[in-house]
């Protein structure tokens, strides 16, 4: 077999090139990086509503009354235009409600994207939910960390993490360097949010365009026990729905409606969860944790959370949800399946049903905080 290098000089030159590439995040620092909007404009729709996030964070101006933010559960869980309409009626003015959603859970994504949002727009209320379980703990770093984590911008956020985790984020920024260099040479243009040929959700997933839904992902797919085998979609709303009064805001009087399992967040996830609530507090944001039920919870008489988040995160966090057994009390198994597109996410039917029931509770929390 021929040697990889024909001379010691070639080997040394390759080693120097590799060493230089590894040092690029330190060499470029912050001043040589392209603007952060280049991050979002370069991420395709399949990874989340990033083209819409780009427009809302860096181009749109004005305050936001309520921002729903997080991974796919909240992205698909809320009919944002409905909430905006109801809040507008309550306030007697045009309210501004937006959803900032993406694929893949993890508190690191929640923190870094919220940081970009709050640096550019004032948000009165942040409603979030980032689900995880024992078998599907979000990876660290998030799969898209090479896109939105840049060492020159974000290194200080790693303080307090283990050396191994800090190194993983550093190397994520190394992986993102070629794209950042390319953006310096040839900046991305803002996406045409209504160009259907660029929106995979409209084309392949039979979804409404998130840009026309104020950021929400509304999928018109039937239930699939195993992806991608979706049943045919049929419009459906329960004839005898649950009452909005079944929605429950945590308090000493309602604590029996909640159950906390005691599962611990991995240290790195807990680190970014605490960074997220500190960020919200620094920007004067009301925080609401919204429990969006997955299919496996359909018979649960209580709202199950892993932790009592206000204590764990040392923050004033309102927790709200609907016990799934009450949400689905008047429905057959077959009817419940008509509300989901898979085991974890609502389709258009479920999104509309859940939103109409939970919105009064959300607006009551907003009203108390923003009088």
Strand runs, count: 10
For the terminal residues, how far apart are their CA atoms? 76 Å
CATH class of the domain at 62-141 and 196-369: Alpha Beta
Strand content: 5-15%
Mean pLDDT: 91
CATH architecture annotation name of the domain at 62-141 and 196-369? 3-Layer(aba) Sandwich
Assign the structural class, choosing from mainly alpha, mainly beta, alpha/beta, alpha+beta, or little secondary structure.
alpha/beta
Order of helices and strands: HHHEHHEHEHHHHEEEEHEEHEHHH
- CATH topology annotation of the domain at 62-141 and 196-369: Rossmann fold
Helix content: 40-55%
For this structure, what is the CATH homologous superfamily of the domain at 62-141 and 196-369? Answer: SGNH hydrolase
The major sheet is characterized as: 6 strands, mixed
Major sheet strand order: 2-1-3-8-10-6
Would you kindly provide a brief summary of this structure?
The protein is of the alpha/beta class and 371 residues long. It has helices spanning 8-28, 37-41, 50-59, 72-75, 80-91, 107-120, 145-148, 151-154, 163-185, 200-204, 267-282, 309-312, 324-327, 333-337, 348-369; strands at residues 64-70, 97-101, 123-128, 207-208, 218-219, 248-249, 258-260, 286-290, 303-305, 317-321.
Describe the 3D structure.
By secondary structure, the protein is α/β, with parallel strands linked by helices. It has 15 helices and ten strands. Helices cover 41% and strands 11% of the residues. The longest helix has 23 residues, at 163-185. The chain starts with 7 loop residues before the first helix and ends with a helix.
């Amino acid at each position: 077999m021929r040697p990889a290098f024909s001379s010691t000089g070639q080997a040394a030159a390759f080693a120097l090139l590799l060493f230089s590439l590894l040092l690029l995040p330190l060499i470029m620092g912050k001043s040589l990086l392209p603007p952060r909007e280049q991050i979002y404009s370069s991420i395709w729709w399949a990874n989340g509503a990033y083209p819409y996030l780009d427009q809302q964070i860096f181009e749109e101006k004005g305050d936001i009354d309520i921002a729903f933010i997080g991974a796919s559960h909240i992205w698909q869980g809320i009919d944002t235009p409905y909430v905006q309409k109801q809040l507008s009626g309550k306030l007697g003015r045009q309210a501004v409600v937006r959803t900032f959603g993406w694929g893949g859970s993890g508190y690191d994504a929640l923190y870094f994207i919220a940081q970009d949002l709050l640096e550019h727009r004032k948000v009165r209320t942040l409603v979030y939910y980032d689900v995880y379980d024992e078998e599907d703990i979000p990876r660290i770093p998030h799969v898209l960390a090479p896109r939105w984590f840049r060492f020159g911008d974000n290194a200080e956020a790693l303080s307090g993490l283990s050396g191994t985790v800090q190194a993983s984020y550093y190397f994520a920024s190394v992986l993102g360097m070629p794209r950042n260099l390319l953006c310096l040479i040839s900046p991305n243009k803002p996406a045409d949010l209504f160009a259907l040929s660029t929106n995979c959700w409209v084309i392949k997933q039979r979804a409404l365009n998130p840009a026309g839904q104020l950021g929400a992902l509304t999928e018109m797919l039937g239930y699939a026990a195993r992806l991608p085998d979706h049943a045919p979609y049929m419009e459906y709303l329960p004839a005898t729905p649950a009452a909005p009064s079944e929605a429950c805001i945590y308090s000493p009087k309602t604590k029996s409606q909640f159950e906390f399992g005691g599962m611990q967040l991995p240290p790195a996830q807990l680190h970014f969860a605490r960074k997220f609530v500190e960020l919200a507090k620094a920007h004067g944001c009301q925080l609401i944790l919204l429990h969006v039920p997955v299919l496996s919870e359909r018979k649960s008489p209580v709202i199950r959370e892993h932790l009592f988040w206000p204590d764990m995160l040392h923050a004033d966090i309102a927790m709200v949800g609907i016990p799934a057994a009450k949400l689905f009390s008047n429905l057959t198994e077959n009817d419940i399946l008509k509300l989901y597109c898979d085991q974890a996410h609502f389709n258009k039917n479920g999104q509309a049903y859940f939103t109409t029931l939970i919105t009064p509770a959300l607006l009551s929390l907003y009203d108390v905080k923003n009088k």
